[in-house]
Amino acid sequence: MDFISAILQLLIASVLVFFISGRLIGSQISLMKRILSVLISVSLTTFVFWYTYLRGSDYYDQGIVSNVVNITTLIWLGSMLLISMLLYLFFELFDSIELNENGTPVGRRSYFKTLITYWKRQKRLREVVGIAVTNGVTRTMKYARAREDERELAKALRDTLEQCGGVFIKFGQVLSTRKELLSPIFIEELEKLQQHVKPLTEQQVDQIIAENFNAGTHQIFSYISKTPLASASIGQVHKAVLKETNEPVVVKFLRPDVKNIMQDDLSILMEFARWISSKSQWAENLGFYDLAKGFSMALKEEIDFIIEARNMEQVAKIVERGSIDVKVPKVYRECSNSNVVVMEYIKGKSVTVGNALFTELGIDRHQFAQTLLYSFLEQTLISGIFHADPHPGNIYIEETTGRVAILDYGAVGRLAELQQEGLKYFLVGIHQNDAALVVDGIAQLVENAEQINRHEMEQAISQILLKINYVSTIPTDELMYSIFSVVREFGLHFYPSVNVALRAIVTLDGTLSVICPGFRIFSEVKDFSNDYLKSSLLKPFKHPGETKDLIEEELALLLPNIRKIPRRLDQLFRKVESGKIILHHDIFSDKANSMFVTQLFSRFVLLMVGITFGIISVALLAISQFIHNAYAIYLNTAAYLGLFLCAILLVRLSIQAIRDMKRTK
C-alpha cells in the first residue's frame, strides 16, 4: 500500500506541476510537449531525490508524505517545478510554429514529422551550398568588380542553379527575364539554362483525370490527343473535345507530386538566397532574397489552377469592358479544379512562328503590336489587373480573325490605383525626358519613398535621360536597367507588384520587337495616355444622361456630411476660444511604431526571465553550501541548468542588439 500511496502522491504532484508551471511560463507549446516536460522533470527529480536523500535514510521504509514534509521535500517539489519550466522554455525557443496576431499557433505539425522535414531540408541545403561554394559563387560575388569578374560570377551562378536542378533552374530562367535588374552579361548566361522535362505518359494522364473527376477520359472528352501540345516543369497541355458540347478545348494538367516538390525546394531556395545575401554586398544590393521571395509567391499561385482560371476570367471581363479588341480564352469552370484547367482552344500560331500568317491575312504588324501594347496598358493603368508574362510564346495570332490572342494566365499582376498613376508618370516622363516626372513616378512606386533625395535623384535620372536624347532607338531593357541601378543606389525598394509590372513591360518590349522591329514603346505609351485623358474628359459630354445620374448619386452621399459642416465649425471655434483644443497623436496607430514597441517589450521580458533564472540559480547554489549530504549535488545540477538557460537568453539578446546596431549603421 505504501508503494501505491507513493505513486498516487507523485501523480498528484505531477498534475500540480503541470498546471502551475503552465500558468507561470505562459507557453504556447503543444499539450504533448508539456506532458513530456512534466514527465521528464518528475522522473529526474524523483530519482535524484531518492538516490541522494531517501535511499538509506530512516524515511525510506516509512513513506514519503507522512514523514518527509520538511524543507528538503519542498526543495524537491520546487526543483521539479523549475526543471519543467526550463523544459517548457527550451521547447519554446526551438519551436518553429508560426503564431498569428492573437498569439495562438498556426499550422501545428507533429514534432517528429517536423524533425524529419527539418533534417531533409538541412541536408538538401548543405548540398546546394556545397555546389555554390564549389563553383566559386561566394568568392566571385565578394570580389566581382571588373567586367571579367562579372562574367565569372554569372557563369558560377548559372552552373550552380543548373546543377541544383528543379526549382533552381526555373528561378534562373525567371531571372533571365529581369533585364531591368541584371546586366546583359548575366542575362546572356542565364538564358542558357534549359530544363528538359519528360512528357506525362498516357497512363498518367488517364490517372490524373480519374483522380480529379472520378471518371475516365471517355466520360468527359469525346477525344483527347495523346501527344501533348506543350510540356513544362509544372504542367502539360493537351488538345481535346468536350463530349457534351463537342467544343475543341485545351486541357492543362498539373504534374503529379509537383506541389510537394515545389514546397520543399522553394523553402531551400529561400534559405539559399538568404545565405548568399549574407555573404555578398552585391546580392544584398540587388535584392536577391526579395527576388527569390517574389518568385516563390508567384510559383505557389502558378501551381494552383483555380487561381489561373480566376485570373483568366478577370482579364476576360476587363477586356470585354475595355475598348481594345483582343482574345482571351474562355474557361470551363465545371471541368476545372486546382490540378486541371480546361479552356477554349485558340486556333492560330505564336508570333514567333507567325510570319506566314501575318502575310497571308495581310495584318499590319505595327497595328498588331500597338493593339497588344494598348491592351496591356489598359489592363495595367486603368483596371490594375494585367497579364504578367507577355513573352512571344504566349501571344498568338488568331487564325480566323487575325486578332491578338493572349494565353497562359498563371502569372497575373495587380497594381493599386496609386501605383497605376506612378507607373504612368514613370513611362511618360521617360518619353518626355522629364527627370522630375520620372522621380514623381518612382516616389509612388517604392515602399520607402520618404528616403528619396529628390535633388540628387533628379540629377542622376537626368544624366541617364541625356544619354538617350537625339537617339533614334535605345533598348528598353538597357534603359530600365540604368534607371533601376539608380533606384538601388539610393536604397529604394519597389513594391513587389510594381516589380512584376516593370518586368512585364520589359518582356512585352521584347515581344513587340519580334512582332514589329523598331516599335517605340515609350512614344506609344504617351499617345495612349493622351488618348485616355481626352476620352475621360470628354466622356461627360458624350453621355450627359449618365453624368447626371452619377452627380445625383455622389450628392446623395455627400449631403449628410455637408449639413454637419456648419455645426462642426461652430464647435471647433468655441473650443479654440476656450483654449480646449488638444492635439493627440497615437504612436500605436502606426504599424511600424507598434511593431517596434512590441519587439522592445518582448526583449525586455526575455531579459527579465533570464535575470530571474540567474538569481534563482545563484540562490540554489548558495543553499547547497549549507547541505552536507549527496542532495547538494542535485541542487547544484538544477542551479547550473538555470544559469545555462540564463546565459543562452542573454547571449541571444546580445546578438540581436549587435545586429540591430549594424542594421542602423
TrEMBL record:
Keyword Transmembrane helix: yes
PANTHER family in the cross-refs: CHAPERONE-ACTIVITY OF BC1 COMPLEX CABC1 -RELATED, PROTEIN ACTIVITY OF BC1 COMPLEX KINASE 7, CHLOROPLASTIC
Transmembrane segments: 6-26, 35-53, 73-91, 604-627, 633-655
Transmembrane helix in keyword set: yes
Any Pfam family hit: ABC1
CDD domains: ABC1_ADCK3-like (cd05121)
Family named by the database record: Belongs to the protein kinase superfamily. ADCK protein kinase family.
Keywords for this protein: Membrane, Transmembrane, Transmembrane helix
Name of this chain's protein: ABC transporter
Signal peptide: none
Organism name: Solibacillus kalamii
Residues covered by the Protein kinase domain: 223-588
